Amino acid sequence: MKLRVVHRTTYLYSEAVSTSYHEAHLAPRDGEGARLVAHDMAIDPTPGVSRERLDYFGNRALHFSIREPHRTLEVVATSTVDVTPKPAPLLHTTPVWQEVRDRLRRDRRKDILDAFPFTLDSTSARVGPPLAAYAAPSFTENRPILEAVSELTARVHADFAYDAKATDVTTPVLEVLRRRRGVCQDFAHFQISCLRSLGLAARYVSGYLLTRPPPGRPKLVGADASHAWLSVFVPDFGWVDFDPTNNLIPSDEHLTVAQGRDFADVTPLKGVIHGGGRHEVRVAVDVGVA
Amino acid sequence: MTPEDRERRWEKARHLIHENGVSYNVYGDPRGMERPWSLSPVPVLIAAEEWSALAAGVAQRARLLDLLLADLYGEQRALAEGWLPPELVFAHPSFLRAVYRARVPDGRWLPLYGVDVVRGPDGRFRALADRTQVPSGAGYALENRIVVARALPELFRACNVERLALFFRTLQETLAGTARHNRDKARVVVLTPGPYSATFFEQAYLAQYLGYTLASGGDLAVRDERVYLKTLSGLQLVDVILRRVNDDYCDPLELRPDSVLGVPGLVQAVRQGNVALANPLGTGVLHTTAILPYLPQIARHLLGEELALPSAETFWCGDPAAMAVVRDRFDRLVFKPTFPEGFTLPVFVAGLAQGERDRFRACVEAAPRHWVAQEQIAVSTTPSLDEDTLAPRALVLRAYAVAVAKDGYMVMPGALSRVARDRDNPDVSMQVGAGSKDTWVMGAGPVSAFSLLPPPSFPVAISRGGGDLPSRAADNLFWLGRYAERAESIARLARVVAARLHDGPAEQMLAVDSEAMILFRALAAQTEAPLPHPADLATAESQLLLAVLDVERNGSLAAVAQRTLRVARMVRDRLSADTWRVIATLDHVLGVRAIEETRSRLGAITGLLDRTVQTLAAFSGLAMESMTRGQAWRFLDIGRRLERLASMALLLRNTLARRTEREAPTLEAILAVADSGITYRRRYLASLQTAPVLDLLLMDESNPRSAVFQLRALVEHVHALPPQLDAGIRSPQVRFAMAALAEVQAADVELLAATDMDGVRGDLERFVARVEAQIPAISDSLSSTYLNHAPVSRRS
């Protein structure tokens, strides 16, 4: 299935911005069941410099800087991606979770060493006893890892209410745990923190959901903006995605843009500006079948 | 040497330290942030053979860490092969993924290296900690050398002490060599976190000594993936940054978003290879003592050598085997956090009471990976002067190495020696008040004298430009001029008020129209404080004390003096040593102790005000005599002239706007404030009249305190500043200054002195208002033309 994404970000400033520096993670990743067919970035005003690179996590990062004074900035990313449905993993055939934990700690095989950093604390996904305690009931002795993760995903979905007003990008995970509400980003950070607190490797995935699903399929929660979910590492199986916001294992309605330790690594658009006064941001995302 | 002789010499050294303003900033010290540098007179002596063995070990460690950094930011064999626990890298806040696989000039990751070394009971040296990111202290070592060599010149010569200058010369060459282009005249800046960082003195000192511009993040800007220094003459390309800002603070866009010390876009400029940083971004990843236990095996693999300078026995508690040993030897170990954030003191378990010991043990057990334990070495001591006798103190040396050709390192023949404050205290942190020493490496024969004067093979282009003045430095100089002059004006005015209060019977002096009360109100206006009319002399005196001494009041003399010092610190590298010494004495003249002593009695205030006026006058004089007439001097003087004009306008508006019964004594007081009494009396003998006083204070071009004198100087200055492309034929500040000058020159003092039926001098009031209106206009247009290149950046 070919999907077409239009992601439009508009900044409105109360005073002119004289210079600005930005970094964007808006180009979808190629590979792992998705093929990037086309990608285009339209930036207004036109940047003085812009340069793309692959970041540490293999995402496409675009750096641009605008030197002409401006009061609005509009960034429109348009991408076409061919998505192949992923076969559902056989949860009960995966290794026992403690075995995965121990291998992550000791094994220096390339893929395992690469997964190891995702067992550690990061800015928005913190490791701690309350998080391990929340995860514990699902991670019983000798349980296959993905069975346990799947149950944890269902519990997060059941225990936490979707509430766009309850949190913002800076709300810490322990606060999310206390309030039991938040948005996709909070649920992803929370579940990642739970898994890391057990010594497992979990990464943050930013991307999109199909906004206009084919007839007969329901529209998923979080479909009108950037979406976020997580991915868990299993040796010899690779990375497997879970979406706690919708309590499912992503297949062909999820489109991955970038992966990292947490939101801070893959922020869709960030910047440092000179001037600008107060500002307002408008984000509109549309994902349809191409 | 007799004790008297020793004391006399040491007094000289202390004097030098005090006068040079050598200082170290202490965080969280209620007595003020700047602590004088503590230097002990007896140097640490090390024989040449012993030193060369140590130096070889230091150079080897530098080579090792250089290779290890290249590995961690490249192949990561050290992790894949199991030489180093991956957590120590991946969890380190200074492992900067943004520069992973970035290229560094000549593949050298460690241009400058520092290492803390102690000597154990077996006489062998051991490394305690490696400094790979922004090794500090080399500048203090240099300053220590200069002071001690001056205090003990004969001894210094007799010991054939190895000189330090060659090391710094090599540092200059190494830094220039990292520039991508124009290596022969690379522009190097020292990136400072600012005057509040612990070692700001050293940063300014090194910048001056090495001939580099001292710049804060706001002085730099990235354009087209290149780094520029914002100067009055525009943007100037920067080739190399000797940084003193920590890794994660260097770029708010890609690193710590809350950093205000960095330069947005810097990381991208680094990745493009357009600027070289020393040390490169990300080098802080080795700044953890947790790597020490793994260095021997890394040395075997990367160098094929054994460590010549071994580390103190160290355990990373995150390693279960190491933790088992730590449990056994807990009470004898020193603990440090694995990744120290900010400043943290090591925990000496032996020094803890039993209860604290148990609590600390539980804390380590709860999160072993966050702790590093080190054996507490019975470190060698060095004799230090304690009161009058020599007593032993624990000693830690910090040695330095700089990268030279191929993969070699040159080790500084000398070190920064730090000694514990107390006999039983093993802690040598400057933050807890440890002292320092010079370190003499004694050669067998005479050493070659060498100084940083350029040899003939090192041609220096003759230059008289001052075009590299950073806009922010110009801004600070402008405000230094303004604040210093404002402080002087307040002090002069307050001095006259204090004297006049006791010039006659109390009831006469407290009358609303007495000269004392008229000036009292002018002082209130000058210090921006509402002073109600005092009911009695005691109230008047206490209000006067508040206006002068109350630091909490924004406009008080004490507050203005503090601001003067603050901006002076920021441009310290622009002031001559003598000028700095003079302005720095403000800290004593108007310091906490002086204020406490004066607060209780009015009698003392006259002395304090006298000293303030003298200090500030000496500062003006020195600036006049010792600064070249470049842009720095112009901005300082523009600030001074504008402020003096403003003070004069304020004084006249508040004293002469209305005729009073006591016009003559008021005029006399005004002349005293304006330091023009003698001139007036010489010209007009005793006859005090308003018109001639106004003539002297406004129109007399020969009076350096007159309004016209200030405006003439201002017009000359603004004409001489570099032209701006978009400013038209005459920049706005030139127009405003000329308008004000024309206003004053065209004034008729007889008319200004005239009063109406009610005794009001309407013409004078309107005239002063017109002149005053030009002052903010000049100041603002200067700011927008020259100084506002440094807008505050923020996140979006």
Count of extended strands of chain A: 13
Return the string of H and E elements of chain A.
EEEEEHHHHEHEHEEEEHEE
Gap from first CA to last CA of chain A: 8 Å
As a whole number of angstroms, the C-alpha radius of gyration of chain A is 19 Å
Number of strands of chain B: 23
Outline:
The complex is a heterodimer of chains A (290) and B (796). Chain A is α+β, with helices and mostly antiparallel strands and 290 residues long.
Features:
heterodimer, A: alpha+beta, seven-stranded antiparallel β-sheet, four-stranded antiparallel β-sheet, 7 helices, 22% helix, B: alpha+beta, 23 strands, elongated
Structural features, described:
The complex is a heterodimer of chains A (290) and B (796). The radius of gyration of chain A is 19 Å and the shape is globular. The mean pLDDT of chain A is 93. Chain A is built from 7 helices and 13 strands. In chain A, a hairpin with a 3-residue loop joins strand 9 and strand 10. Chain A has 290 residues and is an alpha+beta fold. Chain B has 796 residues and is an alpha+beta fold. Helices cover 45% and strands 14% of the residues of chain B. Chain B is built from 29 helices and 23 strands. In chain B, the strands form 6 sheets. In chain B, strands 4, 5, 17, 18, 19, 20 and 21 form a 7-stranded antiparallel sheet that branches. Chain B is elongated, with a radius of gyration of 31 Å. The termini of chain B are far apart. The chains are: A alpha+beta (290), B alpha+beta (796). Strand 12 of chain A pairs antiparallel with strand 23 of chain B.
Draw up the topology in text.
The complex is a heterodimer of chains A (290) and B (796).
Chain A: E1 2-27, E2 34-44, E3 49-54, E4 60-66, E5 70-83, H1 97-106, H2 110-115, H3 129-135, H4 145-159, E6 161-162, H5 173-179, E7 181-182, H6 184-197, E8 202-209, E9 227-234, E10 238-242, E11 254-260, H7 263-266, E12 269-275, E13 279-289
Parallel strand pairs in A: 6-7
Antiparallel strand pairs in A: 1-4, 1-5, 1-12, 1-13, 2-5, 3-4, 8-9, 8-11, 9-10
Helix pairs in contact in A: 3-6, 5-6
Chain B: H1 3-20, E1 23-25, E2 34-36, E3 44-47, H2 48-72, H3 77-80, H4 86-90, E4 112-119, E5 125-131, H5 138-151, H6 153-158, H7 165-177, E6 188-192, H8 200-210, E7 213-216, E8 220-223, E9 226-231, E10 234-237, E11 240-243, H9 266-271, E12 276-278, H10 295-302, E13 314-316, H11 320-328, E14 333-337, E15 347-348, H12 354-366, E16 371-375, E17 381-386, E18 389-403, E19 409-411, E20 416-419, E21 435-437, E22 439-442, H13 471-500, H14 506-509, H15 515-526, H16 537-549, H17 557-570, H18 577-584, H19 586-589, H20 592-599, H21 603-626, H22 631-655, H23 663-673, H24 677-684, H25 690-699, H26 707-720, H27 732-745, H28 749-753, H29 762-787, E23 793-795
Parallel strand pairs in B: 3-22, 6-7, 6-11, 11-12
Antiparallel strand pairs in B: 1-2, 4-5, 4-18, 8-9, 9-10, 13-16, 14-15, 14-16, 17-18, 18-19, 18-20, 20-21
